[in-house]
Amino acid sequence: MKEVDLLRFIIENNIEYHWHDDDVVMFVSHWNIKEFMMELLGYEYLTDSEVQCILKYGYIGVWMKSICEYFDIELKSIFDKKNYDD
To answer: Which of 27, 54, 58, 59 is deepest in the core (most CB within 10 A)?
Structure first.
């Protein structure tokens, strides 16, 4: 996954996210889970790693820090933190 791929996914699917300390939880609708897993994360990532998530009704909450680190993506370059800074 490239930075541009993640950003496109977030924008095109109107993905909501929230900062928690130095990590981001991204809320992926159940309609977008397959695209997120298969097209963005891909077979190699899902074989080598696991994804910490929170299963909710209609969506999953995915912690993004370790995913972004794996793909060498800066959290702050994708997820706008200005609304979360004190």
So the answer is: 59
